[in-house]
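Quick illustration for those who missed Monday's session on complexes.
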Amino acid sequence: MSWVFPPAPQPFLTVAGLTTHFPVRRIYCVGRNYADHAREMGHDPAAEPPFFFHKPASALVQSGSVLPYPPATNDLHYEAELVVALRGGGADLTPDQALDCVYGYAAGNDLTRRDLQAEAKAARRPWDMAKGFDHSAVIGALTPGTIPPDAQITTHLDGKLRQSARLSDMIWPVGALLSHLSRLVTLFPGDLVMSGTPAGVGPMLRGQTCVVQIGELDPAVITLSTE
Ligand code: MN
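Prediction with manganese (II) ion bound:
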């Protein structure tokens, strides 16, 4: 087969301790999966099932990168999130079947243009331009296997603690999240799910460094350039 132009490079994550790489297919994200964050955004955490949105796989950024401040926003926010990476897939999975599809976990930062998200919410428009912009999915190296369900998730902005919670604070744990998602779309190897953020989200300014840590996982680190 010949192409009109060369196909885009395959997005990937590195795997801690291995020289093989994890090819990324799609990036799903979950809204309001920690009760205290749902409340800080003005919602009742008990009121609704999980809901999902996308980032394009091309939005993936390797941890340790330095990025320019994104265009079209004056209110870029960090969101610390556990990232679930799938090596299997399927539709209509039970939570146990879904957990069998998991390859491993990573720390992630669901960068958000909060001002555009607020405009989209007010106008009842899609969130894509608030969530799926270039360089919006910062993800650290994958660690294969399981993660302790009560592992701590934190965000430090220029060394100052901004978010702190336990994974056990999630409203929908990983198996239930994946099960819900598998009733909406067929899941495939290479799919990632960013599983929601705890309370304490806030702005990230030019020149600042944001570090997301989850238990023993490799951190997800991003620095904004000063321009
Ligand atoms: Mn998020």
